[in-house]
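Task card 7
Instruction: Convert sequence to structure tokens.
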Amino acid sequence: MRRLICLSGVLLLCACAAQRSADEAPEELIFSLSDLQIKNGGESVAVSGLTTEIPGVTVTQESSHPAGQPVSRILFNEAWQGRAYLKVNSPVNLNQLPEPAALTFDLRVDDVSKAGLQAGIDCGENCHYVVDLWPDAVKWQGAGWQHVSIPVKCFSGKFADFSKVGEPFRLFFYGSGDIAVSGVKVTAKEPGNILCPDQDTQSITPAPLRAFWADDWWMKRHHQKLAKKQMIRPEVVLIGDSITHGWEDKGAPVWKAYFPDVPTLNLGFGGDRTENVLWRIEQGELDGLSPAITVVMIGTNNTGHRMDPPEHIARGVSNIIDRIKQKMPDSAVLLTGIFPRGEDATSPERINNQKTNGLLAHLAKEKGVHYTNINDVFLSGDDKLSKDIMPDLLHPNEAGYRLWAQALVPWFSALKKENLDK
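Output:
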């Protein structure tokens, strides 16, 4: 005998089996797709009728599930910050479920070859933990319905609070894809079938980058850099994400103009988070090198991809600094504050990065490395970020790289002298 709670906007008790006492904890919470909402960028709307559309996303209601249960098919095209989520009128307390509990749903993956996919639960105001489904979802393409069971503990961490959950199911997507969802529950009757990282240690656990837009080139680039470092003796090593990677693209003519005779190894990889940099270092990218200067800027993708807490990002950067000093003890390290992003100072991503930068400044002192924050050169007097410098409010164009190069010139002169004086 068990007690089951069905949720559709408001909390309803369902006598799906004989009920025990009124204060008995339920074993399952069942959610209705009638509460589904969709969002892409800044536009959000409740799903209603057979078809619901917003720019870049179309949701259609189907009856294609073999068990006959309702289905929501989600087609998205060049979505940037897409989300399908269930929003209940009365927040639910997931702590009342016996442990271990799991978020479960059926997922049909028709196409995610050019899409990213993450699952989440509303875990509190300062909690943004997600589980990346793409590595599994890409294997499920065209294979029909798959039952997904994610332990609730996968969304748990220092900042998690499951006592007042207003959105018990979140599916984040970006790129272009075609998926369908059915049968959403949180249940104590399944152990879970999805492996997930420890949210509090993810930023310090070395891992390669996996994403639909990176799988074709990321590992190849890693091996290319391993080969290149054997052919040059770099005086400067650059470590970071797409912003550093961009010195080979938008910033290439700028670097050539400002540092034409400086042998440089660019270890910037688009999309990288702190754990990806740690993996690359662990796999030998710095072995045998002794550059005069190492420039490090990393962390904005920890914010943009997972909204990692600043403390987690700083821990990841701390571990990177430790590895650099271990591998290249004679190199002068210049830790650079994460660049601003978003149009103005109200951007949640910029706020998160700014808080992280405060921790990085203290970290540099603790680690005995140099620190610079040049964010002011990119911002106007009212703290707005101009698209004339960062057209997508994240990545510098040539003008942005010129501002960065001008800030690096005095640092390079001072650090080279410091290295010679040792």
